[in-house]
Design a protein that fits this description.
- The complex is a heterodimer of chains A (278) and B (423).
- Chain A has 14 helices and 1 strand; from the N terminus they run βαααααααααααααα.
- Chain A is mainly alpha-helical.
- Chain A has one domain.
- With 423 residues, chain B is of the alpha/beta class.
- In chain B, 26% of the residues lie in helices and 32% in strands.
- Chain B has 10 helices and 18 strands.
- In chain B, the strands form 4 sheets. In chain B, strands 5-6-7-3-8-9 form a 6-stranded mixed sheet, sandwiched between helices. Chain B has a 5-stranded mixed sheet with strand order 12-18-17-14-15. A 4-stranded antiparallel sheet of chain B has the order 10-11-13-16, with no helix packed on it.
- In chain B, strand 8 and strand 9 form a beta hairpin.
- Chain B starts with a strand and ends in a 28-residue tail after the last strand.
- The chains are: A mainly alpha (278), B alpha/beta (423).
- Chains A and B meet through strand 1, helix 2, helix 6 and helix 14 of A and helix 3, strand 4 and helix 4 of B.
Chain lengths: 278, 423
């Protein structure tokens, strides 16, 4: 039966400048987030021979190459643990993050048709693009489990922090993805800047080298890169080879939250023009 | 219930045109920012800072106000580019109005383009859920209506086939079936019946009729006047972004044709947007049929005479004239170009003042909207050139006596036939 009309009054008015986020509206469309994420996951490895194996092949081969060049040849230190497991534990969150910001950064432009023809909170598009990569991340985690068994690593109590770190990585990816996707609608330069950004960002993140390699005086600079604290803590929580650097982690978390909130507000500000300019 | 469920007040929508339309690059943004900075420092000429807003913007809708009561079925009529789709986009919250306000009471379902959001790699089954979610249905609602949706689309055998293997008609059927089961209180439909076979079109119209009978409100954009007059009680005629008629659907359709008719004569003498030396100018453009009667509407395959009155400030006859007409489609660009030089006409002298007639035996245009440009050259000099001198709207006609027109291609062959030859 139809609801009474008064319950559903919708007012459409021009809105300028900064607007508040309609959380109720986003909640109403949570099903769409689920189905778009499911779509991205299902479609990802359709018509491939290796399918989900790709989620493992990519980080494993990266690990092998990095171990050879950075671990063996360049003798990059690894906080006293075997380089393969050190670098793999860094590649995991990094690969997820890089894929997520790349996918969500291009997501709005890629969904131009949808945006021009159907209404729904646009935030769902970059959010689902970031969420879809989670499955690959967890598949690749299995290999880390194997490596930990092989090298006899047993995670300690710090493992409890692991879910928090996954959420932080996700929030960071969404925050960056919101900025990039909204900017990309107006400035197509972003499409070309994203791969470049990811490449540079990896080198300023402690993926292939430990934070300890950077002089103590400059370590706080690494913390300004939110992925720096997250990756370091990620390694420490799983491998337990060193205590969690709380200062670094909390600083990163604060920056991630700021990045996310500013991303949401910028996105909401631009949202109303997407259909006209995408 | 007499309370209006849709109340629009002074709705306007402005779009940017030209170079600034669409996306910018950083370079432009930085250049603009730098310019703005210098302007603020210099404060020399504030006027130059403001670009003429008239030249690069267009009002797709201007001060549109109307009310719709619950259970009404309203047809929105107008030529292409009149602002119909913009209106539906605003009502469905896809784009914000530049000014004005709308109040909507109830859940809004919109069907502006069938099947956007389908993913080709997913099966019909998966796409039903995905498309349902896009339209704002929840999982349980889709599950509950799933069998009904599939049956309505007639795709029981293909539910587990990826949509990329579907024909375009099958896609359309599936999408309409999902949307039709959305059960919104207000349904907005844009030209969805333009594709699909006749049987399915009938089914869709029937379904929309049912929706209306259940007391829901429907706003329906279409060029199919038959469907409009059968389904709607009221019509909203939009022209150049403004409502020019709001009332009974039959009168709205009448008005629509009358206004097309008034376009058969076009004064060109006052047009400013022209190129050329101006030594000779087109003053008037008239469309006639083969018997010389002014033409109101164009139909595919019709014969048309384009009559161009011209004046010149030459005292003697004009020599070495080249006159040309070109027809442009907004998507495909120039469709054809008829100039007098290729046919060897007008090669001898023509009077300094008079009229030129271009006769087209059979208009090979599929239904749609086209723009017409006129061009005149005397000797080596371009004397007059008006791009977009007229917009013509071509309507469907039963050209082949079968009630059908080709659904593909950008022009149509007015005359052809198929036959068999025995071996």
């Amino acid at each position: 039966m139809m609801k009474t009309a008064a319950q559903n009054l919708i007012i459409i008015e021009p809105k300028k400048g900064w607007t508040t986020i309609d959380l109720k509206e986003i909640w109403k469309y949570r099903e769409l987030l689920y189905f778009l994420t499911k779509r991205d996951i299902k479609v990802r490895y359709k018509q491939t021979v290796l399918g989900g194996l790709w989620a493992i092949i990519q980080p494993v081969f990266t690990m092998v190459v990095f171990t050879l060049f950075f671990g063996r040849l360049a003798k990059v230190p690894s906080d006293g643990i075997p380089y393969p497991i050190f670098v793999y534990a860094g590649i995991l969150p990094w690969t997820y993050f890089a894929n997520a910001i790349s996918a969500s950064g291009n997501s709005l432009v890629g969904s131009a048709n949808l945006i021009k023809k159907v209404y729904f909170p646009r935030l769902i598009i970059p959010a689902s693009a970031s969420l879809a990569g989670m499955l690959d991340f967890f598949i690749a985690m299995l290999v880390l489990g194997g490596l930990m068994g092989y090298y006899h690593f047993l995670p300690g109590i710090a493992l409890l922090l692991f879910p928090v770190l996954v959420v932080l990585t996700f929030v960071c990816a969404v925050g960056v993805g919101l900025w990039l996707s909204a900017l990309n609608v107006e400035y197509r330069d972003i499409r070309y800047a994203i791969p470049f950004l990811i490449q540079l960002w990896m080198f300023i993140s402690p993926v292939i080298y430990p934070v300890s390699m950077v002089g103590e005086k400059y370590q706080w600079l690494l913390a300004l890169n939110p992925m720096g604290g997250v990756i370091t803590a990620f390694r420490a929580s799983l491998l337990g080879h060193q205590p969690i650097d709380w200062f670094l982690l909390i600083l990163s978390a604060v920056i991630i939250v700021l990045l996310f909130l500013s991303g949401v507000f910028y996105f909401e500000r631009m949202e109303k023009t997407f259909a006209d300019i995408v | 219930m007499t309370e209006p469920v849709i109340k629009a007040e002074n709705l306007s929508k402005q779009y940017r045109l030209g170079a600034t339309q669409g996306y910018k690059t950083f370079r432009e943004a930085i250049a603009n920012a730098t310019k703005a900075l210098f302007r603020n420092f210099g404060k020399s000429n504030p006027q130059s800072a403001i670009r003429n807003p008239q030249s690069d913007t267009i009002w797709a809708l201007k001060d549109v106000s109307f009310e719709v009561k619950q259970g009404e079925v309203i047809g929105i009529i107008g030529r292409n580019g009149a602002g119909k789709s913009t209106l539906l986009k605003i009502l469905s919250k896809i784009t914000k109005p530049t000014s004005g306000r709308v109040e909507l009471k109830g859940r809004v379902g919109s069907l502006l383009e069938v099947g956007t959001g389908f993913h080709p790699e997913l099966t019909g089954h998966e796409n039903i859920y995905l498309y349902g979610a896009i339209l704002g249905m929840d999982r349980w609602e889709v599950t509950r209506k799933f069998d009904e949706i599939v049956a309505f689309a007639g795709l029981e055998k293909f539910v587990d086939t990826p949509v990329k293997r579907y024909s375009s008609g099958m896609c359309m059927r599936l999408a309409f079936a999902v949307a039709a089961h959305l059960e919104p209180e207000i349904l907005l439909v844009d030209e969805v019946l333009a594709v699909g076979d006749v049987a399915f079109q009938k089914k869709c119209l029937g379904k929309m009729g049912n929706i209306a009978e259940e007391g829901r409100t429907v706003l329906f954009v279409s060029h199919n006047m038959g469907a409009l007059s059968a389904m709607c009680q009221k019509g909203l005629l939009i022209e150049q972004g403004q409502i020019v008629y709001n009332g009974e659907v039959k009168s709205a359709i009448e008005q629509y044709f009358k206004r097309l008719e008034s376009r058969s004569h076009l004064e060109l003498s006052k047009r400013q947007d022209r190129k050329g030396s101006g030594a000779c100018r087109f003053t008037r453009l008239t469309f006639e049929d083969e018997s010389g009667q002014p033409l109101n509407t164009f139909r595919s395959g019709q014969s048309v005479r384009v009559v161009l009155d011209y004046e010149s400030n030459y005292n003697s006859n004009l020599h070495a004239v080249k006159a040309a007409i070109s027809i442009d489609h907004h998507l495909y660009g120039e469709i054809f170009y008829c100039d007098s030089l290729t046919t060897g006409d007008l090669i001898h002298e023509i009077p300094s003042n008079g009229r030129l007639v271009c006769t087209v035996d059979s208009l090979p245009l599929i239904p749609g909207s086209y723009s017409k440009s006129v061009f005149l050259k005397v000797g080596s000099q371009i004397v007059d050139w008006i791009t977009g001198a007229a917009t013509i709207s071509v309507e469907e006609d039963d050209l082949y006596g079968t009630g059908k027109l080709p659904t593909r291609g950008i022009v149509l062959l007015p005359s052809y036939s198929w036959s068999t030859v025995e071996n």
